[in-house]
Amino acid sequence: MKTEKVTTIQFLFTTKIQSKMRKVIIMFALAMGIATANAQENVTVGADNGSEPTNEARAEASSLDYASQGGGRQSQHPTLTKEVYPQKEADGDLYHGLTKKLTFDRMVPPHGLEVTYDKTVHILFPSEVRYVDLGSPDLIAGKANGAENVIRVKATVRNFPNETNMSVITEDGSFYTFNVKYAAEPLLLNVEMCDFIHDGEAVNRPNNAQEIYLKELGSESPMLVRLIMKSIHKQNKREVKHIGCKRFGIQYLLKGIYTHNGLLYFHTEIKNQSNVPFDVDYITWKIVDKKVAKRTAVQEQIILPLRAQNYATLVPGKKSERTVFTMAKFTIPDDKCLVVELNEKNGGRHQSFVIENEDLVRANTINELQVR
Length: 372
What we know:
By secondary structure, this protein is α+β, with helices and mostly antiparallel strands. Helix content is 22%, strand content 30%. The chain has four helices and 19 strands. The chain has helices at 2-49, 55-68, 222-235, 357-361, and strands at 111-115, 121-124, 129-134, 139-143, 150-155, 164-170, 175-182, 190-192, 244-247, 250-260, 263-272, 278-289, 301-302, 307-309, 314-315, 320-328, 336-344, 351-355, 364-365. A hairpin with a 4-residue loop joins strand 6 and strand 7. It is elongated and about 135 Å long. The termini are far apart.
């Protein structure tokens, strides 16, 4: 009986030990499975990135291991991260972030230009030059003295090896770009840039067409301003019939007032009914008081035109000339008026007329679809 009891006790003790060992083995297997799954997940993320783990990632992993082993005060949960810029910047062909490739239909085709050290190249533009940028100190450029629409370009060193560029913006909003290289004897020393409005082709509109906006015109395109002035001058309608003056055989008329997108357009005409030519010295636009008391200072506000279409400087005998002026929007107080003065150079046949505020507020609106 004693032998049977001892055998039974040994059997129960062995069974308990085996049960505890099974629990330990199961817990160890679960722990190894979790660790293996985490390792596979990290490897998958690294494969998707196409790059090796960074120093920051290794530091974060080591800190997480240290915390999981009880070395950290607070438990941290590992988070999966993916590098935003996986490629190595080996050259300049890679961009960070999402990019879209520029196509050739977005390119402004440059003109070829040759320069030299011993000769000056002159470029004539359709309107006044506002901006010039040179791509290299090997070039020097500037406006010709007394001419706002002529640029002179020259090389500062002989035989510079690398090609460079030059960009120009004009008052009418046109953008021109040039690829410049050195030549001992340039083929073209004087270049005239063609204006697409006057190049003889009705539907031609090159890639450097006038889409640049200038500060003084606000939100209006310089191209549209020019087309509006050209259209008003071409139609030659007399919308205003009560404003003008006539003296000494010279008649100065206001033919129309128009408005569009915050700008005012004034259509004027000078008629010379005499045989003596009329030389225009200057034209002033100023807002003055209607009534000025004695011993009172006269306050005048000068209004400067932004653009002028066919600005006349000489009117021959028995001829007439018309001009369209563009100005920023303005109004006149009730006690003031707008005085336009035409002064003759070396003469006394000056002309002037008055514009009231009620004439301005009745300005005709311009339909862009009818501009031609």
